[in-house]
Design brief:
Number of strands: 28
Helix content: 25-40%
CATH superfamily of the largest domain: ANL, N-terminal domain
Number of domains: 2
Bound molecules: adenosine-5'-triphosphate, magnesium ion
């Protein structure tokens, strides 16, 4: 079906007036000092993320406003107000003192999306500790590796996760002094060398003076998704809170009455920056679902919780698409006003599907673990060009560069030309280092630019278009082919649910474009279907760019944060070692 290249926005689309409505003027007027003034700060120029997220509201008019609505796997629904969250995080922070840990020490959390995770993260920040939440589905090795790399002195986890993933390797983790266990169904735990979470909390006090951390003090440690190789530990500081606040306002358009749902797990940077911090900074209510993806459940949550702003990811959207439109149509979503997506390129087909399912376009945005916050976005007031990740936010200077032989870079200025996406240093949530990899960190910078490793184009209107990660770009018969373009064309075929495209070494072409697809419900892989999909791609892309080979897979290998692992498709295709697969989702 032919769709227009631009989705126009008009004022009649708004339920609330968008914060960012004049692209150029608001960027020109923007200053980080103004953002700092929106936050409270602590005496002596100190700044602490948890103070801004929790205590500022707990002492103000929003103290009885729900901060979190926790939806348990068994159907429980627990609400925590800002005042309650302040008390619980105070208890956690004050109890930490009894452990003899200090400001700057690292605390890890390994759990599902249960209230204790959120209390531990915010409580540790109050105590001036560095926090690192891990995916609860990681196996024992990835957990131990990360705990060791981050020199974790404290671990908050559940009894069953501890028994399955940590206990056996505890002898190899000498720096891990304290393990706090959340028991099943609130039961007290009594495993050796551990403390019961409830008992620990009872050692704390309801009142606590948040540690006056400096803006440049370490706050969060996030491991990258591991899409392209071994995950890196990106270190972030308290000053990142300025970015969390700014993007909550301009990219997610959060308003006081919002009910917000970020579907990302805090084991991934999105689930912390936008699943915990940004919504709290704006004093709104966040829905936290403990359950795993289930299309029916998700639609039910959107409807029954009255979600108004929804931040999700392409992989989740593709799974909803795979589950069929009927499920979406069985519900109504009168409160929903804004949908955003991050993590992977959002195929135009998914943007259109949003309009069919919710009467709302899905707004793609781009950032990385390293950038600590959203950098390039489609915001509610501005036209969308499906397939584009939008334009740089206020306070963000983006550019495209080419790396030169001598290690320097040159700027790519011409509209439509491809280059490596680069960001001018100076935004507050830039990572301050890769844990234990100083040289790698340094190699990310050239002069005043941070180089992202992603290739993109910018059109004449300043919209950025993702081409592919520099590692994934395919060189075939003299053409440079971005997998995103090919995958998006494949997804237009009615049978295709997911697509991953790689370059396979080839004698004459250099690389041959090979596609892997999984199918929507009701379709079976067959020779005729293969030919039909390849024919569709050829028509859309031309013979030089279209895949020459196509395999059907039941599903594509993905990271825990939901990204297609093309490097694994390639390694498996070529019979090469799979490399670091600690972040691979095992279904
Ligand atoms: P690793 O660095 O370990 O290989 P990763 O890069 O996937 O993993 P993240 O920091 O979680 O780890 O992901 C950031 C990357 O995800 C970006 O560099 C980009 O390649 C991709 N990405 C994120 N958002 C988008 C988007 N909207 N469009 C296209 N790609 C995106
Ligand atoms: Mg990366």
């Amino acid at each position: 079906m032919d769709r227009p290249a631009v989705i126009r926005k008009t004022a009649s689309d708004w339920r609330v007036a968008p914060h960012w409505h004049d692209y150029e003027a608001q960027r020109a007027d923007f200053s980080w000092d103004d953002v700092r003034r929106e936050l409270e700060g602590l005496p002596g120029g100190a700044l602490n993320i948890a103070h801004e997220a929790v205590d500022r509201h707990a002492r103000g008019p929003r103290r009885h406003h729900p901060a979190f609505v926790f939806l348990g796997e068994q159907g429980q629904r627990d609400v925590l107000t800002y005042a309650e969250l302040a008390t619980l995080t105070n208890r956690f922070a004050s109890a930490l003192a009894s452990l003899g840990v200090h400001r700057g020490d690292t605390l890890f959390v390994l759990s599902g999306r249960i209230p204790e995770l959120y209390i531990a993260v915010l409580g540790s920040l109050k105590a001036g500790m560095v926090v690192s939440p891990l995916f609860s589905a990681f196996g024992p090795e990835p957990v131990a590796t990360r705990l060791t790399l981050g020199a974790g002195r404290v671990l908050v986890t559940t009894e069953s996760l501890y028994q399955r993933k940590v206990e056996g390797l505890r002898g190899h983790l000498p720096q891990l002094e304290h393990v706090l266990l959340v028991g099943e169904k609130g039961r007290e735990t009594s495993l050796p060398d551990t403390l019961d979470f409830g008992r620990f909390m009872s050692c704390g006090t309801d009142v606590f003076d948040t540690v006056p951390t400096f803006p440049e003090d370490a706050a969060l440690l996030h491991f990258t998704s591991g899409t392209t190789g071994k995950p890196k530990g990106a270190q972030h500081v308290h000053k990142a809170v300025l970015m969390h606040w700014m993007t909550g306002k301009y990219a997610l358009d959060l308003h006081p009455g919002d009910i917000y749902w970020c579907t990302a797990d805090p084991g991934w940077v999105t689930g912390t920056s936008y699943g915990i911090i940004a919504p709290l900074l704006h004093g709104i209510t966040s829905v936290i679902d403990e359950g795993e993806f289930d299309a029916e459940r998700w639609y039910r949550i959107l409807q029954e919780e009255g979600v108004s702003v929804w931040y999700t990811a392409p992989t989740a959207i593709r799974m909803l698409m795979k589950a069929g439109m009927e499920l979406a149509k069985a519900r109504s979503f009168p409160q929903l006003r804004f949908i955003a997506s991050v993590g992977e390129p959002l195929n135009p087909e998914a943007v259109w599907w949003g309009i069919d399912a919710f009467s709302l376009a899905i707004h793609d945005n781009w950032w990385q673990t390293e950038t600590g916050g959203i950098m390039i976005a489609n915001a509610p007031a501005f036209d969308i060009k499906p397939g584009s990740m939008g334009r740089p936010l206020p306070g963000v200077e983006a550019g495209l560069v080419r790396r030169l032989q001598d290690g320097s870079i040159s700027l790519v200025e011409a509209p439509g030309e491809e280059g490596e996406l680069a960001l001018k240093k100076g935004w507050p949530s830039m990572m301050r280092g890769y844990l234990g990899e100083a040289a790698r960190y340094r190699s990310c910078f050239s002069g005043e630019w941070y180089l992202t490793g992603d290739l993109a184009r910018r059109d004449a209107d300043g919209y950025y278009w993702f081409v592919g990660r520099s590692d994934d770009v395919i060189k075939s018969a003299g053409h440079l082919i971005g997998p995103f373009e090919v995958e998006s064309a494949l997804l237009e075929h009615p049978a295709v649910a997911e697509a991953g495209v790689i370059g396979k070494p080839h004698e004459t072409l250099g690389e041959l474009v090979k596609a892997f697809v999984s199918l929507r419900h009701g379709f079976e892989g067959s020779e005729a279907l293969r030919r039909d999909i390849l024919g569709h791609a050829r028509k859309r892309l031309g013979a030089a760019v279209a895949p020459k080979e196509l395999d059907f897979l039941p599903s594509l290998p993905k990271t825990r944060s939901g990204k297609i692992m093309r490097r694994l498709l390639k390694a498996r295709e070529l019979g090469l070692p799979e490399g670091d697969i600690s972040a691979l989702e095992q279904s």
